[in-house]
Design a protein that fits this description.
heterotrimer, A alpha+beta (351), B mainly alpha (280), C mainly alpha (262), B: 280 residues, mainly alpha, 2 strands, C: mainly alpha, globular
Chain lengths: 351, 280, 262
């Protein structure tokens, strides 16, 4: 039973399409990420949900009732803005109280709920401060508390962690996730950071050019990307140009491989670098193993892993080895193997 | 963004005001340019070009034009020569008084023009600062005539347009990235060569815009030519005022006003074209 | 990084001396004991301030200017701020053209506007009246208020009004609780500058003033044309002090360069 339902949402600006036919169902209490590069329409989608942008077409339903035409102030959505958008002329407590005041909640009740809200984001005692006197992470929490105290039907987070430094981002990620879980609040989270999407959400909708390219769990998206774009955008992948041999088998770097080729068109095989292994040239390929041969160009130590760049008959590819293992010497002749099911064929895009 | 459908209604009072008290009188001014002046000096309603023809046939109009252009050219040149180093200084300085210095530079713009003109009378007058100083040094015996002539008007005008030009230059310096000058220095250019090869070429568009602005302001200035000219300096602006008030010859005043406006427009277009051309 | 350098700083100091010279000279002259403009004065006194305090035409002109500038400021804000709100927040067709329309009066020299107003007001008997002067000055201040407030209102922190809306505030409450409070410094600065613009407005006033009603700058022009004694210097000191108060206030609130710049 879906709680939040977007159907055929579209938004154009002149001839440019910002959001094109976006449909999405979110269950109550579920957390969904809208993941995509900048300009893919994810923020526009979120703003349409909040009533900050009018969609040209499509409907938005929350808990069965349509809210497509409802003005922003009647939607009861908790929106945490990328810039936090805290009111600089009001104290932290008044910022958090703002939505309750607009709802005509009684003074004593407001005080109680504001205290509760600030406690939830671990900012008790800072209610008297002005927003500019707080650190970035604290401001972020105020924005979160302000959006939560109105008991929103949906919590909308717009790139909410992108202004924080890496360490703080990690902490906030877990904090928001645990608050979201404990309150059981339906959440939509816009981000261009895949780690954020993978760690904070039950499901991920990958967006590209105003459309949803794929919706699924983190594992679905990573292991079974539906389109070439998803495979490229989520995680890293080698795109290896392949051809067909006479029996429809895949020909890669001049060697026939135990992988079925798509029926027509030019295509590339996508393989995650960490699924590849380096083996001596003498080691033969197994029945379900893809094997190409080449020469090590160079190895780069990147901390938690080592990247080995291999060049062969069909171009170059990158293999990721866990650090601690010894990388082969530069110039060494070597073979690269991986499981056939780890190769994902995608049609080559017209340049 | 937020329920703004009825916002345009807020424009109505201001719109009515601009239409009634600005647009309509301006049309009226244009209309007056086609009226004629009778032999008694009374205005005759008409739709003719007679007033315009008479005005332009009069050699005095040509003389006024030359005077105005010449005055504006010298005032703008002086003002530009002074504003440029000041603006560059303001743009570059990292003094903690930078804000204060910028305010002082544009302060004259906010002080009544009559007050400033009066100051120039005290500096340039027969018994003013300059003449007293030069006489006490024994450099001159009789006072120099520095006001109530073109010299005084040019100096006063140059000073009065400077704040506007400084603002225009500062705005234009936006694209003058300081790292470009640092790059030039790191590539071995001396400060002077850096100024010549990097700073000046990059600030040319701003200079053109500032010059255009200064020229237009000089052409339409009235108070300074009137008071520092002491009745001996005749430009388009003073003539328009005289015709309109002392002579109550509205058609001629209107023709001269339209003519001046045309000149200003032409000058603005030219300086904008120049600025755009220099940007390439 | 490196600052302005000695050569440039030296040049700038010279230019500053030139800019400040007329103002400094006027202030010194105000305390002159001489009967005419002599600089430096041969002696110092407060006699010209005393003369000013009993000079009826200048004092009544000063009073008229204060009245005109006050009314002009109130009316300009009353019609200019709503227009700025619409131009800064509205999304409607022809907004850019309308903005151009409202700012157009700033492009025409006051010499032309003054003449146009003279032609318009004379048949309506509005010249040399308080309403005439007020309307005349408003051709300068209304576009100024619209320009300054449009900028002030559209440079509010990003998404701040959207935030208020998502928290349940209807549009007029957003304006009252967020937009206007945040624009208050700009609003006060704008009022100060409007007052100053009207108070110092000379050319338009010269066209539409008459013996019955002259503003202070007009009366000063007449005085300077007729006589050359330090009385005007004493008056100038009063005006300079008043201007400086406004300048300091505006600088504190929004920054002078930002307020008067484009």
């Amino acid at each position: 039973m879906s709680y939040l339902e977007l159907a055929g949402l579209q938004k154009r600006y002149g001839s440019a399409v910002a959001v094109d036919d976006v449909s999405l169902s979110v269950a109550k209490g579920e957390s969904v990420a809208l993941l995509g590069p900048s300009g893919c329409g994810k923020t526009t989608t979120l703003r349409m949900l909040a009533g900050l942008i009018d969609p040209d077409r499509g409907t938005i339903r929350v808990d069965g009732s349509e809210i497509t035409k409802l003005p922003a102030h009647k939607r009861n959505m908790g929106y945490v803005f990328q810039s936090y958008a805290l009111f600089p002329h009001l104290s932290v407590a008044r910022n958090v109280a703002f939505g309750l005041e607009e709802r005509g909640v009684g003074k004593a009740e407001i005080t109680r709920q504001v205290e509760e809200g600030l406690a939830l984001v671990r900012l008790s005692g800072l209610g008297g401060r002005r927003p500019r006197e707080l650190s970035g992470g604290q401001q972020q929490r105020v924005a979160l508390a302000r959006a939560l105290v109105i008991h929103p039907s949906v919590l909308l987070l717009d790139e909410s962690l992108s202004n924080l430094d890496a360490k703080l981002r990690d902490t906030m990620r877990h904090e928001i996730r645990s608050i979201q879980r404990s309150l059981g609040i339906t959440t939509l989270f816009v981000t261009h950071d895949q780690v954020e999407a993978l760690t904070m959400c039950d499901r991920i909708a990958v967006m590209n050019r105003g459309r949803i390219a794929q919706i699924g769990t983190a594992e679905d998206i990573y292991e079974r990307p539906a389109t070439r774009f998803v495979a490229e955008f989520v995680g890293r992948a080698n795109a290896l140009p392949a051809t067909r041999d006479s029996d429809g088998k895949v020909l890669l770097w001049g060697a026939s491989q135990p992988v079925a080729a798509p029926p027509q068109g030019e295509f590339d095989l996508f393989v995650r670098p960490q699924r590849m292994r380096l083996v001596p040239v003498s080691e033969p390929a197994g029945g379900s193993t893809v094997r190409v041969a080449g020469r090590v160009l160079r190895s780069v130590f990147v901390g938690d892993h080592v990247e080995v760049l291999v060049e062969g008959a069909g171009g170059q590819l990158t293999v990721e080895m866990p650090s601690g293992t010894t990388a082969p010497a530069e110039g060494a002749e070597i073979a690269v193997i991986w499981q056939a099911q780890d190769s994902l064929p995608f049609a080559r895009e017209a340049a | 963004m937020i329920g703004v459908a009825r916002l345009p209604l807020l424009l109505v009072p201001a719109g009515l005001f601009v239409l009634a008290i600005y647009a309509w009188p301006t049309l009226l001014l244009l209309r007056n340019g086609f009226n004629e002046v009778g032999p008694t000096g009374a205005m005759i309603e008409a739709w003719s070009l007679k007033t315009a023809a008479d005005t332009f046939a009069d050699g005095f109009t040509f003389e006024l034009t030359l005077n105005s252009l010449q005055l504006s050219l010298s005032a703008t040149t002086i003002a530009l020569a002074l504003s440029y180093p000041l603006s560059l200084f303001l743009f570059r300085t990292n003094s903690r008084f930078r804000g204060l210095l910028a305010v002082i530079a544009i302060l004259p713009m906010l002080i009544s023009s009559v007050v400033r003109v009066f100051g120039w009378l005290a500096i340039l007058g027969d018994r003013g600062l300059v003449n007293t100083l030069l006489q006490s040094l024994g450099l001159i015996s009789a006072p120099l005539r520095l006001v109530f002539n073109w010299t005084g008007v040019t100096i006063g005008l140059a000073e009065s347009i400077m704040p506007y030009m400084i603002l225009a230059l500062l705005a234009g310096f936006g694209q003058l990235d300081r790292t470009l000058e640092e790059a030039s220095r790191s590539l071995g250019a001396s400060p002077l060569r850096t100024f010549w090869r990097v700073t000046l070429p990059l600030s040319l568009p701003a200079l053109a815009l500032a010059a255009g602005l200064g020229f237009v302001l000089s052409m339409s200035a009235y108070i300074t030519p009137k008071l520092l000219g002491g009745g001996r300096v005749f430009v388009l602006a003073t003539e328009i005022f005289e015709q309109a008030t002392t002579n109550t010859n509205w058609p001629v005043a209107a023709v001269l006003a339209i003519y001046t406006l045309g000149l200003l427009l032409l000058l603005l277009v030219l300086s904008n074209l120049l600025a755009r051309g220099l940007k390439r | 990084m490196n600052g302005a350098g000695t050569v440039l700083s030296g040049l700038a100091a010279l230019v500053y001396a030139l800019i400040l010279a007329p103002i400094v000279v006027v202030v010194m002259l105000a305390f002159s004991a001489d009967n005419f403009i002599l600089f430096p004065p041969s002696g110092y006194s407060l006699r010209w301030f005393q003369a000013l305090a009993s000079h009826a035409p200048l004092l009544s002109a000063l009073w008229l200017s204060v009245q005109v500038a006050s009314v002009v400021t109130l009316l300009s804000l009353a019609i200019g701020v709503p227009a700025a709100l619409a131009l800064a927040k509205g999304e409607f067709r022809g907004k850019d053209a309308l903005t151009g329309f409202f700012l157009a009066p700033l492009l025409l020299p006051t010499l032309i506007t003054g003449l146009a107003l003279l032609l318009f007001f004379t048949p309506l008997r509005l010249t040399a009246t308080l309403p005439g002067l007020v309307l005349g000055h408003m051709t300068v201040t209304v576009p100024f208020v619209i320009r300054m407030m449009t900028t002030a209102l559209s440079t509010l922190p990003h998404d701040i009004e959207a935030a208020a809306a998502t928290l349940g505030a209807p549009p007029w409450r957003v304006v009252r609780r967020v937009t206007l409070p945040l624009a208050t410094p700009g609003l006060i600065a704008c009022a100060c500058l409007s007052f100053l613009l009207s108070f110092d407005e000379t050319v338009i006033s010269l066209f539409i003033s008459g013996p019955r009603a002259s503003t202070l700058p007009v009366e000063m022009v007449r005085y300077v044309e007729g006589r050359t004694d330090p009385l005007i210097a004493a008056l100038s000191v009063v005006l300079i002090i008043a201007t400086l108060i406004v300048v300091v206030a505006v600088e504190r609130l929004v920054g002078v360069a930002r307020a008067v710049g484009k």
